[in-house]
Design goal:
single chain; mainly alpha; 5-stranded parallel beta sheet; two-stranded antiparallel ribbon
Length: 980
């Protein structure tokens, strides 16, 4: 047997995975967009499988690869690759059309007209717009290779694209190496969020079994291999296809030679060893570069190492043909399997790697300077040039701050923290500068949701302070750390420990700005604990802050007082919030700015100015979150979408949720956004998606966190009821309404509506199957809650009277349904009217349906509830509330009520048409007859008397030569064109 493996060979095995990906690609090409991530260990064939399946000529495949260098990822690297791939394939006309209005892409692509000062957050929707325009023209497949090295900005783009799937001819595929996903890797959170998307799949590739390895060896050698050889290969490669390929390459004979390496490192190096000496040296230099490198840079660095670079292009071609470097473009060049770069790097003789890094540092600094500051920081560090590493890290951190990419900024700042003690004093600054660096790093960690690191760094900074000598500085750090504990959803008691210590320290200077800030934060925490002293403390904090003269501290004090007064004195809270907003904006105080927006929204809701509250939340979201990736600002997205959901502006709500979900916010903002998404999903009939959102929300916050306790409780109840699990919904809510050692709050009144809803569903389900005992227990459970409630529900919460009236009406209607009271219909009728007064179309449509259902069950004639049922159908249809729409239409069919809406009759332009003889009013009434309406219903809609309708109907019958209203309607449908 003789054979020789070649780099190009067919893909073997993977039948089930091929079928799954093929189905996904076919769906995407047909307008059913989907995303799939192919996962597995290095060398298992992820990239090869995707390439093999993306060869259909009808597909436009755009390929981008993630780049990792020096512990950080290159921002937007795969996005740039994808867009450049398209640019190479598109003609100038298509380029002009697709890039119209996308000038912001100049920061990523050369040749696009530049726009200065582009917010980083703007790039995400612009890239999405461009890719969707491409998908409008082609059946498009976007492939992102090596997601384990993706930067957060690129993950944002992918998440935004995936959450925007509708009917595009688009498929998103990615590859991901499992072994590079350590604890805390950002891709864990991204994948956790994407798994909640209905059109997202993960496909895991396992190692080959013996039969599959045999098929691969046969293909590599071109002859049927001996089973002993296959067994040897399987034993040494352990079924890893890439290692199998390396082991078999250039093999002749029936056994593997003893010299073939045993492990991963040796197998990866096998192909490299077969290169010429010059090619090996160049590839080693490339490995130290850490990322795709242009030939001119590679030549300059290699020549400093004494490598002959006269035949550089030939060496690159040789390495490509041997499977060491990736095929395709040779400039820039990179490894076919990036793991080989790591192996080569680790195998360099002592001292050689630092020398090569120094070469890269000198060459890149001379040619590109600050534009590659992150790379220069890594090369400096690995060359042992600490001061330069510190300098370039500082420059890279400032660049990231200007680009509003805090996740990349943190990498540079953390490196500076690590290098502080080694850097020269003249460069690093004073001990006070070190404390400032740690506090800045802590603050940026908090902004990107790395709360554990933020708290640890704040603690380190606190340890650098002598609290006896600098009590005010220590107090400020304790306030910061206390708020970080809140963002980590720790109990308010734990937060209060830090805030109390801050107050004790700053109390030595009771007229200082530090004391004002600490006292204001304590007042905020006291308000969460329902302590009356909070108001007095908040007032004193504002007084001291005004006298102290710090705009930033005054913004904080006013914002905290706004939070304390939002429910009890909303007008004053609004004044405080507006002033705090102006001061925080001017001083760049992000947390204070956020607080000013949040509590103004709550104050406006208390006043019943719900539209203003929603608009303010959305304005704050656009100012705080959209321009960059400040995670805390996404809480305003939640407040805005909550208002849009209530107001029936569901399409706007969906659009904002899409962007917020794509940001993959951690902690409180992430959980709140997920809960809003869960509510929208279940109301639109996407119950499984709602469950995924809800489960993810619970993963992001502590179960007993008080900050969004009512929102979490309501979200869980909505999901459970939608899943048809009323008993679980009752149990879930009861546990949150009857907490041991905690009395109900006025805010808990809102949960009573859902509890009564769940109890009514439980009782009705029991009655439907004749289980009177279970129905009785459901009623008794509700009565027990009501009997133990410390006040009359919906009388204590400080909010708009019309909103309280709506909630009270809905609650009492659900109670009547649970009890099966005879006055259910009138209760639901009043509830529908109360919902209409508030402008809550979802609740109104539900109440109208329940009203019609109860009235018919009570023996009312169907004609009496036909109009409310039609209104419910209209509302559900406009909202896209599919479950409600199905329930309304089912009830209408059972009682034979027509839900059809009248459409204008367009009379054909023919003189012989009998319809042309009708007057405009008669045609209008005939349109109602076509929908099956009675005279009374027509009269009510047209605001005329029944007798007038009867006269018009008689005239219609006479002019059309028909004898009944049904004949006239049938004639109209045959002759006319309803709606034009």
């Amino acid at each position: 047997m003789r054979g020789q493996a070649q780099p190009g060979h067919r893909l073997v095995g993977r039948g089930a995975e091929r079928e799954r990906i093929g189905r996904i690609l076919a769906g995407g090409a047909a307008g059913r967009p989907a995303a799939a991530i192919v996962r597995g260990e290095a060398g298992v064939g992820k990239t090869r499988l995707v390439r093999e399946l993306c060869t259909e000529p009808e597909l436009l495949v755009l390929w981008g690869s993630c780049v990792h260098f020096g512990g950080s990822s290159v921002p937007y690297a795969p996005v740039v690759g994808i867009l450049q791939d398209w640019l190479q394939a598109a003609d100038p006309a298509e380029q002009a059309q697709v890039l119209a209005g996308a000038d912001e892409l100049a920061s990523l692509l050369p040749g696009v007209r530049a726009v200065h000062d582009v917010p980083a957050g703007r790039l995400v929707p612009v890239v999405d717009l461009v890719l969707n325009r491409i998908a409008d023209r082609h059946r498009t497949v976007v492939v992102v290779d090596d997601l384990h090295w993706a930067d957060l900005a690129s993950l944002d783009v992918l998440a935004y694209l995936i959450t925007g799937f509708r009917r595009q001819r688009l498929t998103v595929l990615g590859t991901c190496r499992d072994e590079d996903l350590g604890v805390g890797h950002p891709l864990h959170g991204w994948l956790a969020d994407m798994r909640r998307m209905p059109s997202f799949e993960e496909i895991r590739l396992e190692r080959f079994e013996l039969a599959e390895t045999g098929a691969q060896v046969e293909d590599l050698l071109g002859v049927l291999p001996d089973i002993d050889l296959v067994a040897q290969v399987q034993a040494r490669s352990d079924g890893n296809p890439y290692l199998t390929e390396l082991l078999v390459q250039d093999l002749s004979g029936v056994t593997l030679p003893d010299t073939v390496p045993q492990g991963l490192r040796e197998a990866l190096l096998a192909a490299w060893h077969r290169l010429s000496k010059q090619a090996r040296q160049l590839v080693q230099v490339l490995a130290v570069g850490g990322r795709p490198t242009t030939l001119d840079v590679l030549a300059a660095v290699a020549s400093r190492q004494g490598v002959d670079v006269t035949g550089l292009s030939a060496c690159v071609t040789e390495a490509q043909e041997r499977g060491v470097l990736a095929m395709g473009t040779a400039d820039p060049c990179w490894f076919r399997h990036p793991l080989l770069a790591e192996v080569l790097y680790d195998g360099l003789p002592p001292g050689q790697a630092p020398d090569i890094h120094a070469g890269y540092l000198d060459v890149l600094e001379a040619r590109a300077g600050a534009s590659v500051a992150p790379d220069l920081a890594v090369h400096s560090l690995r060359a042992g040039r600490i001061d330069e590493a510190y300098k370039w890290s500082r420059i890279a951190a400032e660049q990231a701050a200007n680009l509003r990419t805090p996740a990349e900024e943190v990498i540079q700042l953390e490196r500076m923290c690590d290098l502080w003690e080694q850097a020269s004093p003249a460069l690093r600054g004073s001990p006070a500068d070190r404390t400032a660096l740690y506090l800045r790093t802590s603050a940026v960690c908090s902004r990107v949701g790395r709360n554990d690191q933020a708290i640890e760094l704040a603690g380190d900074a606190l340890g650098m302070i002598d609290s006896t000598r600098d009590p005010l500085v220590a107090s400020g750090i304790l306030v910061d750390r206390g708020m970080m504990r809140w963002h980590r959803t720790e109990p308010i008691e734990a937060v209060m420990v830090d805030l109390g210590q801050a107050l004790d320290l700053s109390g030595r200077r009771p007229e200082s700005s530090a004391y004002a800030r600490a006292l204001a934060a304590v007042a905020w925490a006291e308000n969460w604990q329902s302590l009356p002293i909070a108001v007095a403390h908040a007032n004193e904090a504002v007084r001291v802050a005004r006298a102290a003269g710090s705009d930033r501290v005054l913004a904080a004090a006013l914002g905290y007082r706004c939070s304390v007064l939002a429910g009890s004195a909303p007008e004053q809270a609004l004044l405080d919030g507006r002033e705090a907003e102006q001061l925080a904006r001017a001083s760049g105080a992000m947390l204070e700015w956020l607080m000013a927006f949040v509590w103004q929204v709550h104050a406006l809701r208390t006043l019943g100015r719900r539209t203003e509250a929603t608009d303010l939340a959305l304005r704050g979201y656009s100012e705080l979150a959209v321009p960059g990736r400040d995670m805390l600002g996404y809480f305003l997205a939640y407040l805005g979408t909550d208002g849009l959901l209530e107001a029936g502006r569901w399409e706007e709500c969906q659009a904002i949720l899409r962007a917020a979900l794509a940001a993959r916010c951690p902690s409180i903002p992430g959980a709140a956004v997920r809960l809003a998404a869960a509510s929208l999903a279940v109301r639109r009939g996407r119950t499984a998606e709602g469950r995924l959102h809800f489960d993810r929300a619970r993963e992001l916050i502590a179960e007993n966190f008080v900050g969004i306790r009512e929102t979490l409780a309501a979200g869980g109840a909505e999901v459970l009821i939608a899943e048809g699990k009323p008993q679980e919904a009752v149990d879930w809510l009861r546990a949150r309404l009857t907490r041991p050692g905690a009395a109900p709050t006025p805010e808990d009144d809102d949960l009573l509506v859902l509890y009564a809803n769940a109890a009514a569903e439980l009782a009705q389900a029991a009655r439907d199957v004749g289980d009177t005992a279970s129905a009785t227990r459901a009623v008794a459970g509700l009565e027990e809650i009501l009997d133990s409630w410390p006040w009359e529900p919906f009388t204590r919460k400080q909010t708009d009277a019309s909103v309280q009236s709506m909630r009270s009406a809905l609650f009492h209607a659900e109670v009547a349904r649970c009890r099966d009271d005879p006055d259910q219909a009138s209760r639901w009728q009043r509830a529908a009217q109360a919902c209409d007064a508030v402008g809550a179309p979802w609740h109104r449509a539900v109440a109208q349906w329940r009203y019609a259902e109860a009235a018919i069950a009570a023996g009312w004639p169907p004609t009496g509830v036909a109009e409310p049922l039609r209104q419910a159908r209209r509302g559900a249809d406009e909202l896209g509330a599919e479950p409600l729409l199905r329930s309304v239409e089912s009830l209408a069919r059972r009682v034979r009520i027509s839900l059809r809406e009248p459409e204008p009759l367009v009379v054909p332009d023919r003189e012989e048409s009998v319809l042309s003889a009708l007057t405009p009013r008669e045609r209008e009434i005939l349109a109602f007859l076509v929908t099956g309406r009675s005279n009374g219903e027509i009269a009510k809609d047209l605001v005329i008397s029944d007798k007038t309708v009867s006269v018009h109907v008689s005239s219609i019958l006479r002019k059309t030569g028909t004898t009944t209203r049904f004949e006239a309607a049938a004639l109209a449908e045959r002759l006319a064109d309803p709606g034009g």
